[in-house]
Write a structure and sequence with these properties.
The protein is an alpha/beta fold. It is built from five helices and seven strands; from the N terminus they run αβαβαββαβββα. It is globular, with a radius of gyration of 15 Å. Bound molecules: adenosine-5'-triphosphate and magnesium ion.
Length: 172
């Protein structure tokens, strides 16, 4: 890929879109997304109040094979869900009340973000500094819900990662 094409990718990542008519669709799509994720990955979840961020995280948790239950972390800021299958733990963060993600380092989670998959609800504008690689999942709509995914950083460049992401756009 010529350098100017790589630069273009960085400023305008390709978006994957998928329709999510029911909460079950959101959960099962999350499960597929969870199977794509690995240790060190960061997912920033954006969407209005009640858009389905926690429902999606429940699916991701199933795909990863971590211990539940995943609930809204609103009053705890962050929760660690250990793996049941020898994989990475899930760190589920609600940034709604967080002043900045420097505070996340101060939480003293008993796992490092490099060894975990980190999902940040309300992380837009905050979580970007945590990792140069990230997926941004935006949930939209009320009657006709959909998710779109943008991928940033070297983790998501290359044919293999691109194919994984494009696979998420296909209806299972
Ligand atoms: N297609 C859908 N996908 C996800 N949730 C849906 C869908 N349709 C309806 N819902 C319902 O929307 C409600 C809110 O979902 P959820 O708690 O996951 O949202 P949230 O974005 O995490 O909310 P908050 O902003 O409070 O954190 C749930 O009761 C869920 O069942
Ligand atoms: Mg929530």
């Amino acid at each position: 890929m010529p350098p100017e094409a790589a630069g273009a990718d960085r400023s305008a990542p390709p978006a994957v879109r998928v329709g999510l008519p029911s909460p079950e669709d959101t959960r099962s799509w999350g499960e597929r997304l969870g199977r794509v994720l690995r240790a060190g990955d960061l997912v920033v979840l954006t969407g209005d109040l009640g858009a389905g961020k926690t429902t999606l995280t429940q699916g991701i948790a199933e795909g990863l094979g971590v211990r539940g239950p995943v609930t809204s972390p609103t009053f705890v800021i962050a929760r660690v869900h250990p793996s049941l299958v020898g994989g990475p733990a899930l760190v589920h963060v609600d940034a709604y009340r967080l002043g900045g993600l420097a505070e996340l380092d101060d939480l003293d989670l008993d796992t490092s973000l490099d060894d975990s998959v980190t999902i940040v609800e309300w992380g837009h504008g905050l979580a970007e500094g945590l990792s140069e690689d990230r997926l941004e999942v935006t949930l939209r709509g009320h009657d006709e819900r959909e998710a779109s995914v943008s991928a940033w950083g070297p983790r998501w460049e290359g044919d293999e990662a691109r194919a994984l992401l494009e696979g998420l756009a296909e209806v299972a």
